[in-house]
Design goal:
Blueprint: H1 14-46, H2 49-56, H3 62-94, H4 102-133, H5 137-164, E1 167-169, H6 174-185, E2 192-196, E3 207-210, E4 217-221, H7 222-227, H8 230-245, H9 248-271, H10 274-279, H11 291-328, H12 331-344, H13 353-359, H14 365-374
Parallel strand pairs: 2-4
Antiparallel strand pairs: 1-2, 3-4
Helix pairs in contact: 1-3, 1-11, 3-4, 4-5, 5-9, 6-8, 8-11, 8-12, 9-11, 12-14
Length: about 375
């Protein structure tokens, strides 16, 4: 058997490294092309008269144009993204990561549409109603964006997660007792331990802690419970408990709310700039025909904010890893768990540095294993 080219990949067989690299080379070009196409669509319709004409086609009334803007802003990007998402799904299926049929996949796309359309519609009606009555619309919109971020952070595990997965209580037994004991030892109150039916979509392994206060629960993928050793499940959950102990969800929500408010203020400066309004063929922002300009500006800002956000995410994940190691005192088990997750998820132990810096939300598997070995 040949030795791995990268010493950081020494914990993994050359066959796994080659397989994970092949998956990345099959998936990432499609994903990047999809992102580029989506951004290009927004820029073309937002920075030319085409977007204004599209919204104007929904009639001359203010409400009709706002509703038409929301409908097209949700539908067109999703329709454009479908072939890229489908191609990525085909590639992942070749590597055994997909268990869901096309009908189920299509149903998930429809569910996502039914969730996003009302949210976007409500947001646009609020923004354009404010813009039509006060010059301080951006301040009220910033407060609304911050509040919506907080509400959606709470609503996601309670309202949205059940739309895409079924959750059942983990049967009483040693593993459930061990997870509840682990949370109690960590000072984290959890309401229940649930099992998500992830196997009907994927073979990937995962667990997480979601909810706030009385809604907080430990959630484990059934794929993890079916393939991992109980101790490895505990270590995955110990990492997730680290996020709770360090208030990562609350801090992330607060940071997201602040970012949404500041982002709305920045958007207001850009979308009221006369040259951009002229390019979009609208006289003033309060005209709903500027909706595509608003979306293009927001998407550009989101793309620029992505890499710093990923860097912050990696820092948070490293801290959660340290917490899991301190809570369990089991570096060897942590390493075994990381190796299993990496192998089953067909993850690349040490992906290309630029790709990881721009889009990596977690430390690389090789880095996480090296950090565990370095733990006293």
């Amino acid at each position: 058997m040949s030795e791995p080219d990268d010493p950081a990949e020494a914990d993994f067989s050359p066959e796994h490294v080659a397989r994970a690299r092949a998956l990345r080379q099959g998936v990432w070009p499609v994903a990047l092309a999809g992102r580029a196409a989506g951004l290009a669509l927004l820029l073309v319709l937002g920075l030319t008269p085409a977007g204004a004409r599209l919204v104007a086609a929904f009639g001359g009334t203010w409400a009709g144009r706002v509703a038409g803007a929301a409908l097209t802003l949700v539908l067109l990007p999703q329709l454009l993204a479908l072939p890229f998402a489908a191609r990525g799904r085909v590639v992942r299926a070749r590597f055994g990561l997909v268990t869901q049929g096309w009908r189920g996949w299509a149903a998930d796309q429809l569910r996502g549409l039914l969730v996003s359309l009302p949210l976007v519609t409500a947001a646009l009606f609020a923004v354009y109603a404010l813009a039509g009555v006060t010059r301080w619309w951006w301040a009220w919109a910033a407060l609304g964006a911050a509040g919506a971020t907080v509400v959606l952070s709470w609503a996601a595990p309670v309202l949205f997660e059940p739309l895409f997965n079924r959750f059942t209580p983990m049967p009483a037994g040693p593993l459930r007792d061990a997870l509840l004991s682990l949370a109690a030892r960590d000072g984290v109150a959890v309401r229940d331990v649930l099992v998500a039916d992830a196997s009907r979509r994927t073979t990937a392994l995962n667990a997480y802690v979601s909810g706030f206060g009385r809604t907080r629960r430990i959630v484990a993928y059934d794929t993890l419970l079916d393939t991992a050793e109980p101790r490895e499940v505990e270590l995955v959950v110990a990492h997730e408990l680290g996020h709770v102990v360090h208030r990562d969800v609350a801090r992330g929500t607060a940071l997201g709310a602040a970012g949404a408010a500041l982002g709305m203020c920045a958007l207001a400066l850009v979308v009221t700039w006369s040259p951009l309004l002229a390019a979009a063929n609208t006289a003033h922002f309060a005209d709903p025909r500027s909706a595509w300009l608003l979306a293009a500006t927001a998407a550009t800002g989101g793309a620029l904010a992505g890499p710093p956000g990923c860097a912050l995410s990696r820092r948070v994940e490293r801290r959660a890893d340290r917490h899991a190691l301190a809570l369990t005192g089991d570096a060897a088990g942590f390493i075994a768990m990381q190796r299993r997750l990496t192998a089953v998820n067909v993850a690349e132990p040490s992906p290309p540095r630029l790709l990881h810096l721009l889009w990596g939300t977690h430390p690389t598997p090789a880095a996480r294993i090296a950090a565990a070995r370095a733990t006293p």
